[in-house]
Amino acid sequence: MRVLKDETYELSVSDDIVRVRQRARAWAVEIGFSLVDQTKIVTAASELARNTVEHGGGGTARFRHVVDGHRSGLRLDFVDSGPGIPDVELALRDGYSTGTGLGLGLSGSRRLMSEFEIESSVGTGTRVSVTRWR
């Protein structure tokens, strides 16, 4: 897989979530995603950025335009050094929430993107990586 473009954004306050949403839309347009795919990417980016800020205490969002053979895509990595997720399987279930949300952030993001990976260790933090292919 080749990386054509790579940028990292800090996530610490709610304004950063808005900025990540805007950047996700701009990247999706630049790469040539359809309006439907742009909406899926922006929604997933927003949910994962919100989780990074609210549950992880802040972190980073890394955006990469990737190419794999004939496929072009957008890979997003959200990383925090927060408390981690004690039970990842439970956290991926629709409706599970440790806060006041609907519990669709992680599971919804997994459905919206082509690829979804999560690594989390209690006391160390969480990394969620998602890719949408064109």
Secondary structure: elements and pairs:
Elements: E1 2-11, H1 14-31, H2 35-54, E2 59-68, E3 71-80, H3 88-91, H4 105-112, E4 115-121, E5 125-133
Antiparallel strand pairs: 1-2, 2-3, 3-5, 4-5
What is the helix tally? Answer: 4
> Main beta sheet, described?
5 strands, antiparallel
Average predicted confidence as pLDDT: 92
Task: Report how far apart the termini are.
Answer: 14 Å
Name the beta content range.
Answer: 25-35%
How many DSSP E strands? 5
Examine the coordinates and then state which fold CATH places here, giving the name of the CATH topology.
Heat Shock Protein 90
Shape: globular
CATH class: Alpha Beta
SSE order, one letter for each helix or strand: EHHEEHHEE
CATH architecture: 2-Layer Sandwich
Number of domains: 1
The amount of helix comes to 25-40%
Low-confidence residue ranges: none
Using only CA atoms, what is the Rg?
14 Å
Q: Could you give me the name of the CATH homologous superfamily?
A: Histidine kinase-like ATPase, C-terminal domain
Short description:
By secondary structure, the protein is α+β, with helices and mostly antiparallel strands. The protein contains 4 helices and 5 strands, in the order E-H-H-E-E-H-H-E-E.
What keywords describe this structure?
single chain; alpha+beta; Heat Shock Protein 90; 134 residues; five-stranded antiparallel β-sheet
